Amino acid sequence: MNVEYGPLRPADAARCAELESQLFDGDDPWPERAFLAELAAKHNHYVGARVDDKLVGYAGIARLGRFKPYEYEVHTIGVDPAYQGHGIGRQLLHRLFDYADGGAIFLEVRTDNAAAIGLYESEGFEKMGVRKRYYRVSGADAYTMKRERR
Ligand SMILES: CC(C)(COP(=O)(O)OP(=O)(O)OC[C@H]1O[C@@H](n2cnc3c(N)ncnc32)[C@H](O)[C@@H]1OP(=O)(O)O)[C@@H](O)C(=O)NCCC(=O)NCCS
């Protein structure tokens, strides 16, 4: 499968919202306007994965703070269910790491999301603690995870 990675564009926002509603059903999926706002914000970096020009994955990260050493927060990552398990999520994450340039990276993940936790742990993230009822709609808990500066 030939997967191409590149910047996420405003024209992708509607497709991202469609994927979000499949991937995060019941957990406040981001609408199109949320993607448009994040794509327009400074210090955010969003990437997409495409197969035959169809967007099949997306991921975004924000740079935090005004001064070095910066820290980073993964906003979101998702892969079309029909394309999961082929390494696309890992490749998207690596592109976020490139933007973070060795800085510490944080994220939140549902405590029952074994696939995402497996991916993050295999990439050097460690659990730091639990945020109770972090997901307001479902009431699910989240782990906060951190990948140390390197
Ligand atoms: C998490 C997600 C992005 C992973 O994308 P993917 O393209 O399927 O992942 P990859 O094929 O790159 O797999 C990378 C690693 O993730 C882990 N993983 C993936 N699917 C898994 C599963 N079903 N069970 C356990 N671990 C899994 C494994 O560690 C895997 O590494 P390996 O293949 O070397 O064993 C994808 O499952 C997804 O979109 N999930 C729904 C949205 C979501 O939960 N996003 C994260 C929010 S915090």
From TrEMBL:
Signal peptide annotation: none
Protein localization: Cytoplasm
SUPFAM superfamilies: Acyl-CoA N-acyltransferases (Nat)
Record key words, sorted: Cytoplasm
GO cellular component annotations of the record: cytoplasm
Domain of life: Bacteria
E.C. code: 2.3.1.266
Pfam families the record matches: Acetyltransf_1 (PF00583)
Coiled coil: none
Record PROSITE patterns: GNAT (PS51186)
Reaction equations catalysed: N-terminal L-alanyl-[ribosomal protein bS18] + acetyl-CoA = N-terminal N(alpha)-acetyl-L-alanyl-[ribosomal protein bS18] + CoA + H(+)
Family in the record: Belongs to the acetyltransferase family. RimI subfamily.
Function: Acetylates the N-terminal alanine of ribosomal protein bS18.
Protein name as it appears in the record: [Ribosomal protein bS18]-alanine N-acetyltransferase
Organism: Mycolicibacterium parafortuitum
